[in-house]
Amino acid sequence: MTLAEILPSLGALDPLPRGGLWPEGTRVGPDGDLLVGGVSMSGVAARFGTPCHVLDEPHARARAREFRAALPEAEVLFAGKSSPVRAVYRWMAEEGLSLDVCSAGEVEVARAAGVPGARVLLHGNAKTDDDLKAALAHGVRRIVVDSPAEVDTLGALCPAGQEVLIRVIPGVDARTHRAITTGVSGQKFGVAPEALPAVVDRIAAHPNLRLVGLHCHIGSQVGRVAAYEEAVRRMVSLFPGPLTTLDLGGGFAAPYRPGESTFDITGLANRVRIALRQECAARRLPVPNLLIEPGRAVIANAGLTLYRVVAVKPGFVAVDGGMSDNPRPSLYGARYAPRLIGRASGARRVPTAVVGRHCEAGDLIAEDVALPQDVHPGDVLAVPATGAYHYAMASNYNMTPRAAVVSVRDGQTDLRVRRETISDLLRRDLG
Ligand SMILES: Cc1ncc(COP(=O)(O)O)c(C=O)c1O
Ligand SMILES: N[C@@H](CCCC[NH3+])C(=O)O
């Protein structure tokens, strides 16, 4: 069936697709409004303005618990870069997750959220002295060394006994977008297997550093469980001797459009657990503590973004945000599934491109989505799956103030990050 054949058969209130795209418990009201966490989304748009990022707190917490339940023997670290919001770091810590950060800024969000350094791990391919100093000042327990030279820089700054891991390139192709494929040679992260022994020796020779394990991260928006199994086997084969820690990184995929599936966390747990035991037994190594660093798979589908329609042309609906709050279409060719909220429409559904307000033809959010033909300026659109790497990667392109972040739960709304103002932006411009 083609889209054109399906469109006229849809009713005035299109059902929400199943499968984890929207936060758990999201409902369509009889008036076409969308209720998330018991809160009216058109009400949120009216009260907080648009664009507005909304996070469903119970959904985020439930996904965090799911990871812990699937891998009770592992330490689950929330990838803080995916949603550097104090409340989110706090929820994750309350659910028993640790935190992975990669900059002084993320360390400070962790500190402000009350996440103790003992539960934080720092990584990054080009950590500045400021990043390292911020981490050490907060007592960050583990730091992932990404290059040979970093051993000396870190060793000179840190106290005796600093726990370190080494990020290694496992040579596993995650088969995701090239810009976020990080487990193969020819990209900037980690130490090649052949360079590993020299880095191990350099750490061993440093009085302040204590090597506890190896780290890898094969990429992001990875759908294949088998890629992680492969990574476990490769990583254990690279162990220079018994180590207490194997950090497999994150990257577990999230659905962005109807029909895409939620990552199989239980499948991951089973296959990784077996691979780890087998590989360690074969090499007569003790089984190390397993660490994983999910970001997107925890928080992406807890989030949605509300936009107001500003302009309409045949085939196009333009909204009051775009690549400044969502650079993912331009970076990775990502596409989303917006829906009209706030009113029911019986108008014919027509294939529509939802585009942003920025000065580039590539500034689009969705192509070929079935929207009612009568969508007009002032309408509100809701876009699911925006909880990860949206607020985190927002920019001020075209001097656009960044959007607010609001969280909802049990009918309650909390403003977590206030909307930026043009005065905020001008204050930095000293003339
Ligand atoms: C080292 C590391 N860990 C964890 C993550 C989290 O990735 P994701 O949000 O895709 O789970 C990233 C980002 O890809 C990363 O670079
Ligand atoms: N920012 C990317 C993923 C990179 C994750 C960080 N290593 C995204 O939105 O898909």
UniProtKB/TrEMBL annotation:
Task: Name the positions where substrate binds.
Answer: 296, 328, 332, 360, 389
Q: Does the keyword Acetylation apply?
A: no
Listed InterPro entries: Ala_racemase/Decarboxylase_C, DAP_deCOOHase_LysA, De-COase2_N, Orn/DAP/Arg_de-COase, PLP-binding_barrel
- One Pfam family hit: Orn_Arg_deC_N
Q: Which SUPFAM superfamilies match?
A: Alanine racemase C-terminal domain-like, PLP-binding barrel
Can you provide one Gene Ontology molecular function annotated for this UniProt record? pyridoxal phosphate binding
Could you list this entry's UniProt keywords, alphabetically sorted. Amino-acid biosynthesis, Decarboxylase, Lyase, Lysine biosynthesis, Pyridoxal phosphate
**Biological process (GO) annotations?**
lysine biosynthetic process via diaminopimelate
Q: What pathway annotation does it carry?
A: Amino-acid biosynthesis; L-lysine biosynthesis via DAP pathway; L-lysine from DL-2,6-diaminopimelate: step 1/1
Q: What is its EC number?
A: 4.1.1.20
Q: Which parts of the sequence belong to the Orn/DAP/Arg decarboxylase 2 N-terminal domain? A: 61-300
Q: Where does pyridoxal 5'-phosphate bind?
A: 251, 293-296, 389
Q: What class of enzyme is it?
A: lyase
Where does the record place the catalytic residues?
Answer: 359
Q: Catalytic activity annotated for this protein?
A: meso-2,6-diaminopimelate + H(+) = L-lysine + CO2
**What binding partners and quaternary form does the record give?**
Homodimer.
- Purpose of the protein: Specifically catalyzes the decarboxylation of meso-diaminopimelate (meso-DAP) to L-lysine.
Name of protein: Diaminopimelate decarboxylase
What organism does this protein naturally occur in?
Answer: Actinokineospora spheciospongiae
